[in-house]
Prior knowledge:
Alpha-Beta Plaits
Amino acid sequence: MDNPRPEKVAIVDEVKGRLESADAVMVTEYRGLTVDAISQLRINLRPAGGSYKVYKNTLVRRAAEGLDDEFTELLVGPTALAFTESTPEGEAGDVVTVAKALKDFAKDHPNLIVKGGLFEGQFIDADGLKQLAEIEPREVLLAKLAGMIAAPMTQMAGLLQALPRDMAYGLKALIGRASCRERV
């Protein structure tokens, strides 16, 4: 393209900016999905910081120049990109939750095929995205971590409480023996 139209240049710039700023980009095939289904997918992705957009493959290839060749090979047929950016509240998007939302949506809509994508600038295939979707949510992992950190402290507190308690029981037993001997 010697003299591209300004609309196409703007789209290439938009895609390039989103590819650079997103934590993850997942390529999907949406052949056979209705407009309502795609709208529902967008709604499902939004709380996790995900967005879903259909671009022309040629424009995405142009924007992805310099990125992994395996990524650009995924751009065949009717493809759409799911980006992990930020939530509506302005927090960083959760790649795991976006991958999980795509996986869950694909269960109900088998026409949605997750092909692969980019995660932190590196190519990730469909199996890698499935593994990413299997990771427990961030809140669950943080709760488990907090439990692992708190467990030794709880055990230590129990031991520290046991020492005086056991000593008190021992003294009580000694006093009980002494009082029994005095009676005899």
